[in-house]
Amino acid sequence: MAELYYEDINEGDEAQPLAMGPCTRTQVVKYAGASGDFNPLHTDELFAIRAGFDRIFAMGKMGAGMCTRMVCDWLGFQNIKKYGFRFTSQLWPNDLITYKGKVVRKYEEGGENLVECDIFGENQNGARTLMGSVLASLPSKK
Amino acid sequence: MVDKNLLGKEFPGPTWDIEKGKIGEFAKAIEDPNPIFYDEAAAKAVGLEGVPAPLTFLVTEMFHFDESISRPDYKVDMNRVLDGGTEFEYIKPVLAGDTITSSTKVVDIYEKTGKRGGTMTFVVAETTYTNQKGEACVKSRGTLIETSQAPTSG
After folding, report:
1. Given CB 3.0 to 4.6 Å as the disulfide criterion, which of B51, B56, B81, B99 pairs with A65?
2. Shortest Cα distance from B69 to chain A (angstroms)?
3. Cβ(B108)–Cβ(B122) below 8 Å
4. Interface test with A, best of B30, B65, B122, B144 (most A CBs within 10 A)
5. What is the pLDDT tens value at each position of chain B, 154 positions in all?
């Protein structure tokens, strides 16, 4: 993909939204195996039901991982300095999640060209599953 | 109840190898087809020295705790705990072939009054991930919140 330069981005600019899913139980199991998160709430339907949930749900950090695809496609993996997130609602099997981002601050500091962006994930009902922020140091054309 | 004596305590974590195959498996699980996570030439084309670990890859630390290294026990009541979020800070890329050691320090414990009047206790822990050369590569700061009652009963 084309490299993004500091001069090409402004406060208020938005990332190309990235629609992902539908989330499947198979993906949740794959993420359990890849990450080492074997909490049975995410992979054992009977356990989740006995714990009071309707069904299993994905690990919050799986959604936070999916969101990094949008972040890296937009700002470039090698430019990311900080990535913070918190979970605001659950990610269920069959959910379609769209990850979005917006530049909230553009500034130069310590010789670096920085952009601070708000990011979030939104499900098919418009509920936010994840909210966070990213700090990236972008190359300059100068 | 959160054990407030934990403030300032440091917990050594595991040491483990960052493998290219595990990076690809993780990237597939988060459905990221970016070639830098699968192919060394693609990673080098963007200026990296090797295949990098995706931004949240170090959560795989979970695999490497065992009887000899246990995870820090904050003495929180698991029925009243909420995940207050995580922030990663990237200092140097973690690459396939690296050996990483983690260490976690409890950096803050504080209380706030919640909207419904109960007390919420926040535990902030910072984990530093250091490579085989002794370079700190990534720091993660995680917040756990213990509510005064079970989150679902509010």
Report:
1. B56
2. 15
3. yes
4. B30
5. 788 888 999 999 999 999 999 999 999 999 999 999 999 999 999 999 999 999 999 999 988 887 787 777 787 777 778 888 999 999 999 999 999 999 999 999 999 987 776 888 999 999 999 999 999 999 999 999 888 765 554 3
Structure tokens at A38: 């074997």
Give the domains, in start order, of chain A with CATH numbers.
Answer: 6-137 (3.10.129.10)
Matching residue, tokens 């995870």: B71
Q: Collapse the DSSP code of A38 into the 3-class scheme (helix H, G, I; strand E, B; otherwise coil) and give the result.
A: coil
ipTM associated with this complex:
0.95
For each of chain A's 142 residues, which pLDDT tens digit applies?
568 999 999 999 999 999 999 999 999 999 999 999 999 999 999 999 998 899 999 999 999 999 999 999 999 999 999 999 999 999 999 999 999 999 999 999 999 999 999 999 999 999 999 999 999 999 999 8
Question: Which of A38, A39, A83 to probe by mutation at the B interface, max B CB count within 10 Å?
Answer: A83
| Interface residues on A facing B, Cβ-Cβ cutoff 8 A | 20, 27, 30-31, 33-37, 52, 60-62, 64-66, 68-69, 71-73, 76-78, 80-87, 132
Distance from CA of B86 to the nearest CA of A (A): 6
Sort out which chain B residues have CB atoms less than 8 A from A81's CB and list them: 89-90
C-alpha distance from residue B56 to each of A106, B20, B134 (Å): 24, 15, 21
Give me the DSSP letters along A39-72: -TTTT-HHHHHHTT-SS----HHHHHHHHHHHHH
User: Given an 8 Å threshold on Cβ–Cβ distance, is B55 in contact with A81?
Assistant: no
Residues of B in contact with A85 (CB under 8 A): 85-87
A46 CA to chain B: closest CA distance, Å? Answer: 19
Note the CATH architecture for domain B4-147: Roll (3.10)
